[in-house]
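re: ur question from earlier - yeah i can do the single chain one, its not a big deal. heres the input i used so u can compare w yours
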Amino acid sequence: MVTPIAPDKLRRSYDASNLKLRTTAELEPATNIIGQPRGVQAIDFGISMKSPGYNIYVLGESGTGRTTAIQQFIASRQTSDPIPPDWVYINNFQEPHKPIAIRLPSGEACRLRDALHQLIRQLKNEIARPSTTSPSATPHWRYAMSWMEKKRSY
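and the output i got, formated as tokens:
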């Protein structure tokens, strides 16, 4: 048998005078992942894997705070383990479909990226600057031209 529900029982309400704050701005932000027990177990499992080749993949809608939540979650469970190295992939000009992996000390990948950006800016400026000598007089020019001639003969 179906029991009718009174309209005042259809929604929960809370007496705000019981709160010890004036606005929610006074609340501390949550530092744990709420309502995702299986996700938390999976992250714990992934973090505990000490073998190489394992990754943690986080899926969710953009703007839901998943990156921040994962960063806070991992920071709260940091151990005395050493910080893992950075890995970068660079173009392999001989075999473009096989990039070259380079292992760097932790934090060095960002420094390498920044240094390469600066190098590219400097090279663009140097290339754009008018030369005081004929370009064909420089060894670099002669080398580049001979290389281009060899490529044309293939």
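The beta strands are 86-90, 100-104. not sure if urs matches, ping me
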